[in-house]
Amino acid sequence: LDLNMVTERKVEDNHRQDSADLLIFIMLLTLTILTIWLFKHRRFRFLHETGLAMIYGVLVGVVLRYGIHVPRDISNVTLSCHVNASPPTLLVNVSGKFYEYTLKGEISASEISDVQDNEMLRKVTFDPEVFFNILLPPIIFHAGYSLKRRHFFRNMGSILAYAFLGTVISCFIIGLLMYGCVTLMKQVGQLDGDFFFTDCLLFGAIVSATDPVTVLAIFNELQVDVDLYALLFGESVLNDAVAVVLSSSIVSYQPEGDNSHTFEVMAMLKSFGMFLGVFSGSFALGVATGVMTALISFFTKLRDFQLLETALFFLMSWSTFLMAEACGFTGVVAVLFCGITQAHYTFNNLSPESQDRTKQLFELLNFLAENFIFSYMGLALFTFQNHIFNPTFIVGAFLAVFLGRAANIYPLSFLLNLGRRNKISSNFQHMMMFAGLRGAMTFALSIRDTATYARQMMFTTTLLIVFFTVWVCGGGTTQMLSCQHIRMTEGSERRSTKHESAWLFRIWYNFDHNYLKPILTHSGPPLTVTMPACCGPLARCLTSPQAYENECQLKDDDSDLILTDGDISLTYGDITVSTDASGAHISAGPAGTTSAVISADDLDRELTYGDHELVMRGTRLVLPMDDSEPPLADPRHRMRM
Amino acid sequence: LDLNMVTERKVEDNHRQDSADLLIFIMLLTLTILTIWLFKHRRFRFLHETGLAMIYGVLVGVVLRYGIHVPRDISNVTLSCHVNASPPTLLVNVSGKFYEYTLKGEISASEISDVQDNEMLRKVTFDPEVFFNILLPPIIFHAGYSLKRRHFFRNMGSILAYAFLGTVISCFIIGLLMYGCVTLMKQVGQLDGDFFFTDCLLFGAIVSATDPVTVLAIFNELQVDVDLYALLFGESVLNDAVAVVLSSSIVSYQPEGDNSHTFEVMAMLKSFGMFLGVFSGSFALGVATGVMTALISFFTKLRDFQLLETALFFLMSWSTFLMAEACGFTGVVAVLFCGITQAHYTFNNLSPESQDRTKQLFELLNFLAENFIFSYMGLALFTFQNHIFNPTFIVGAFLAVFLGRAANIYPLSFLLNLGRRNKISSNFQHMMMFAGLRGAMTFALSIRDTATYARQMMFTTTLLIVFFTVWVCGGGTTQMLSCQHIRMTEGSERRSTKHESAWLFRIWYNFDHNYLKPILTHSGPPLTVTMPACCGPLARCLTSPQAYENECQLKDDDSDLILTDGDISLTYGDITVSTDASGAHISAGPAGTTSAVISADDLDRELTYGDHELVMRGTRLVLPMDDSEPPLADPRHRMRM
């Protein structure tokens, strides 16, 4: 009986302690919010909220580490039971009563003393999986859901290049440089433990995930060039996904022999295969769930009940994450592509109130989760008990990161500029180089496993890299912008863009506009028109009545084009009626190549000047595009041809 | 090395399994949402969403119990280590590697076989504390935040009577009846284990928490009499709080002797003291946090940044819960009073967008949490492995619950009607009797501890009671309403209410209107007027500039009155200017008792006819109230006196 009560009291004390710990974080966040308000109120732009959250985390960490000392709880017992394996659940017989224990994880020998050490510090340390299961998903989903799709798709080729090729290049360059550094350290005798090439590569993957949230916030506020914004944002969003899967593949590198760190082609190919498999699987799952939500909202009248609609949206998005995790894929990657798909299709089917509600909900979740992670980062500087500060490694890492970023940006930009019509200017490249901040994803990846000497050193160094980039690079953004003479786009004068990814983009656009959007949303053109005659019945079934009737369809805040097809017969080069922003109808008859040019330029114009509501009927995208047109002065004049 | 990987894989498998389990619930909820939409679409009113969620839970439970069988995981090991105590953390030495295990709780001997039994069922079973820490707080907070304050305060006396006295009465009546039943069972030999009086009392406390969410939803839809709505809603919201603290006090009953089930006055007083202490402490904490949030939103211009405002609101409300739990009070009670306070003060300080955002956020959380709990209830019928179906006990329990509710409603209504001017009619009483549904709180309280035979029997019976009341009573509400001839209040004709709690209410109202609201919100009258002259500087500091300037203050959707003081000199019986709903100014000069009557009637009228925006200046509430006035026909005519 005594033991029973003692146990209950211990469990309750644990609970009270956990509540108190969580309360510390809530207080941190509250303080951060109030200070952010103060900064905004006084237009103080040198410290973004994430940098601020980190500072507060550091302060609290100092207090917890040096100010408060909770004495040892010597009742922690080490059982020396000799078992064959470590079961997930353990039943311990204590004088006739049974107690259930669940497996938390492995502890390295060095941590054992910590287990009995400063209890306070151990308490405010979260299980690393909390980041991947609870905190990162809302952040990544919000990034996908709030993607500025027009600019994203316009620069799709470059973004994909930076995100995939660039991250891999960065990873290997950093890995190689670190390997050199580590070998040097071993020679000099500064290395106290093992540090293999796979560890270096892992470090490279971890630290290649950029998170320029600070910079982008400033870009947004100052209305910096949208292309630069799109490139940076798109790259960061995708390279998080790539970095996660890359790091998993590197960790899973498992050669046949006894020594798990020799190079074996088969093992490498297996890791590579795993990368492809996990990435595609997560991508497919994310898109599938997004599509399913779009279909559900398309076929039901859920828009009459905003609470149900919002709840469904939230649940479907969350289920993506769980499904991916249950299938062994990566939840955050799935959630990213789900967010993009939801923004592209489902969003259009929601009622206006639900559009606001979902946006606000995920905005709030993103805000809270992000500031939580950054506070925790600051805290971890002092509460993590296995830091390994190795100056040589740290200096080497900073250098490697700098060079890795340079090897990512400059060569790729050069190659891309060969193909782009709208070149990425060199000051853009410098800005992108500068804006390679590291943040939440890097931290989460590095804290995931801190069992070995190598991982602990990596964690410490990563933390310092994050601090430096967020505080120094983030804080210096405004200066850098003026230094690089990057224009603010306040006015309406924009470049006429014959966008570089025209070919790739247009293939995608045709397919999306003519088939995917009509199936998944209420936009035109009706499928009965675009689909081959044999699929007639199916097309009639899948087409929304609104696709036939409504002209003013789908005004996305952010959509690419607003095209509806009212006339059934569409032919190459056919233009019928078009409406300019003021609502006046302008007719233009069919005219061979001129109309081809007009339509492409209309597409172009709409992409450039998002504010004009350009509704065109009966026009298909026409290929190939004639690019001998002079630059536009006033879009409306062109339309009246 | 092998063991390391095996452990990692086990931990990962655990994770995948957890994701899959959570996915089952998400799917359940999604299905529920779609079916709810279908029901609303076809106006099917016999099954509310909570009843529906339970049905789906039952179906899935059947599938999991009989359809899927996951073989034993024999790697669960029982260690027979002889330790003196059960430490919170256990380090197990497995061939040189250390594994950390955390204490989950005690397992009774009967459960041991279950630990190795159907793994699937164990997996979809949540730790009961999940309900109190994650699911119930949003539900309870939302109940407090969405309280219709006007009707609540108007019927405050009755509601408090039902909630406190009524719950205690119900608890003891049920406890006594069950004790009789159990003694009978013991005589007959049907009782296989111990069942003490404290267990009976606990059962009474648990089952006294009503949750008429179904009934209230129907009331809302059919626009049933607002007083009945207020009584039922207010009672349910408060008696949840009372039931939680009552059950904790009963559980903590600890007499000195060896036998923990003898009656000892000291122990009983101690329990009673604990009840008072925990309840008041939670109340104080909840109100304090609400007030603090109101002050923060009052003194800062946070309303310019809706995201920050909403985030702060959310965090402060959440911190109430954590603070209460950390201090050893009851989080859900604190959160309830925090919600009420936030709705009464902070809400007025928020920007309109944030008002919407916070309402929608908590509405969504409430919706998800509630349906989750009800689904889980249905599931638990089949996944809980220690059900004890004892027909005698079940029948006895149903009877006891029925009689307990009757002993709660009818005597108290009789007593209250002695004091109320607006009597609670007998058909209202019958309706309240009928609408005593049990729900989330009852379930959570009963599942909290299912270690002993008594508790398991109580859990099974509670589950059946919840099923019955939700499906049968909830489904039959519409019939009952017509059967009792309870009017729908569609039109504008309402009773003139000289409300029964006039005295209590007016004391509160004066204090609130003249002091609390001006301190915490931007409403008038300015404190410089209402506070004594000596506090002048303090009053000037605390008064918002808007209290002086704005006439049209604080249009709460739901506020009691809209009174502003423009004129500084207020005297007893002074009426200056009043504006009726159409905006015309009506002047009335000071006139002794007549004005006293008018002002009280104006108060009255505003309380009755919430739609009219009655702005009165320079009027204080006047006591005592003359109730010889004839019933009103048209409020505007009265005003023009």
UniProtKB/TrEMBL annotation, chains A, B:
- Principal subcellular localisation of the protein: membrane
Q: What Pfam families does the entry give?
A: Na_H_Exchanger (PF00999)
Any stretches that span the bilayer, and where are they?
20-39, 51-68, 130-147, 159-179, 272-299, 311-340, 361-382, 388-407, 428-447, 453-474
Which is a Gene Ontology cellular component entry for this protein? plasma membrane
Q: Which UniProt keywords apply?
A: Antiport, Cell membrane, Endosome, Ion transport, Membrane, Sodium, Sodium transport, Transmembrane, Transmembrane helix, Transport
Q: How does it sit in the membrane?
A: Multi-pass membrane protein
Residues annotated as signal peptide: none
Its annotated compartments are: Cell membrane; Recycling endosome membrane
UniProt lists the family membership as follows: Belongs to the monovalent cation:proton antiporter 1 (CPA1) transporter (TC 2.A.36) family.
Q: What is this protein called?
A: Sodium/hydrogen exchanger
Origin species, per record, is Oncorhynchus kisutch
